[in-house]
Amino acid sequence: MVVVLLAANEERGAALRAFARGADGAAVRRGLTAERFHGREGQVVTVTIAGARRRLLCVVGLGDAAALDVDAWRRAAGRARQAAERHGAARVAIAVDERASSIEHIVALAEGFDLAGYRFDKYKSDAEHGVLVGELTLLTPTPLPAADVARRLGGVATAVTAVGTVRDLVNEPAAVKTPTFIAATAERLAADAGVEVEIWDRARIERERLAGLLAVARGSNEEPRFIRMRWRGPGARRRVALVGKGITFDSGGLSLKPAKAMETMKTDMAGGAAVIATMVAAGRMQLAIDVDGFVPATENLPGGKAQKPGDVIRFRNGKSVEVLNTDAEGRLILADALALAAADKPDLIIDLATLTGACIVALGPQVAGIYGNEQAVVDRLVTLGRETGEPLWQLPLVPEYRDDIKSPVADLKNIGGGNAGSITAALFLQEFVAGRPWVHMDIAGPAFTDKELPYAPKGGTGFGVRILLRYLAELAATPPDVPPRAAASHARPRRKPPLAAKRR
Ligand code: BES
Ligand code: MN
Ligand code: ZN
């Protein structure tokens, strides 16, 4: 299948003529007219053209030429992949014009194409094992430096694999992906990436006084796990902590969710999965940065020993919290992890969590909320998100709303006053970062999609992984005192005693 990408109203231009002349050209024009193809974003027309063999010409709309960003090409390549799968085309060639001939664009096209190939069909009895798309050729107007292209495509493959890991874990039923399963998966994946993993069982979690994780785990028969991962990059000059929410199923606990709201709650470990996959990819890419991963994992169920509204728990940083709603469990397990992460004094903490329905109300299903106490870092991540097609929108840490999470009986309560639920959740988390540079992404919306997207089928999306990998790679390549910076990293403290990192 040959793919031609056209922006709005380019259907009469010269681009098509190179691939369909004479009678073929007429057939393509008829096809485009019949489908009213005008290059709008999302329009896809596939025409069979004559010749020695049956060949397909697929025309994909890019939308308004003036608004073409890198992700528009990534999305178009994803749509081309979807069309190829529909038509059983095993080999695909995308004709790339001057507008998309930089390495950045080539990489985005390959990435969109690869990401769109994801399937989760292990539980389908009639999964099609027919022709699978096996090859992509990019026809560029000018040659590109082969070594650079090869290196960047290697990065694409690693990132796409990481996204696939997250999608697999999110899509897996909660009955399978227990906290123990997630921990074992982290160990297995990290082993050949040179990333060190430490799994804390309940006894260790008790000794470490992870009060939030223990409180949430009370209602479940599944053992909780706390997953610690360490990547020590060669020549690293910075250290970043990644924290991810790992609720493998969120029933709400005793503050039970309605049935409808529970349907997708196996997704509630998407932040944790993103952290695990990013750590593994950082190791595979040998990124010159130190990264520490923290993933608290448990179910949130209403068993006989479940925590009850009104219970008070005390965290390792000394703060007490009145649990008024057991469905606001994410912030409880993240509080432990953030406090632990902050104690190591990293240059930056980034957490990802499917934290609040309120964030979906505010930003809809495709945009994540981002918060932080370092504006330069937030700005940089927002920009990267635009480039990777993982949109982030900054929401404010309104200091006045801190009053909403004050409790009459404890230092804090785990819910706000009813409004601005994503903000009060973020303010709660901020209480546990000990003033360290910190960014929080509320990915409740985009972690999961209930409709097919240009390069993600229904289900887990892997949101956040590509932003994180880009950002880590960028930090690794930037001297500590040059922006974008992870503040306060000029005088990097001496390395602590070796962390026994297994490296290959
Ligand atoms: N996991 C949910 C948030 C969520 C909702 C993620 C929808 C994805 C889709 C979280 O644990 C939760 O239940 N939050 C509550 C907080 C409330 C009780 C303060 C919410 O958003 O309703
Ligand atoms: Mn919940
Ligand atoms: Zn939750």
Structural summary, described in words:
- By secondary structure, this protein is of the alpha/beta class.
- The chain has two domains: 2-125 and 134-141, Leucine Aminopeptidase, subunit E, domain 1, CATH 3.40.220; 155-477, Aminopeptidase (3-Layer(aba) Sandwich).
- It has helices spanning 22-34, 70-87, 103-115, 146-171, 179-191, 202-207, 211-217, 259-262, 270-284, 330-343, 357-363, 375-388, 421-430, 465-477; strands spanning 2-7, 44-49, 55-63, 91-95, 135-139, 196-200, 225-231, 239-244, 246-250, 290-300, 311-314, 320-323, 348-353, 368-372, 392-394, 412-413, 438-442, 448-449, 459-460.
- The strands form four sheets. Strands 6, 7, 8, 9, 10, 13, 14, 15 and 17 form a nine-stranded mixed β-sheet that branches. A five-stranded mixed β-sheet has the order 2-3-1-4-5, sandwiched between helices. A three-stranded mixed β-sheet has the order 11-12-16, with helices on one face.
- The model is unreliable at 485-504 (pLDDT under 50).
- Bound molecules: ligand BES, manganese (II) ion (MN) and zinc ion.
- Manganese (II) ion binds at residues 250, 252, 300, 327, 329.
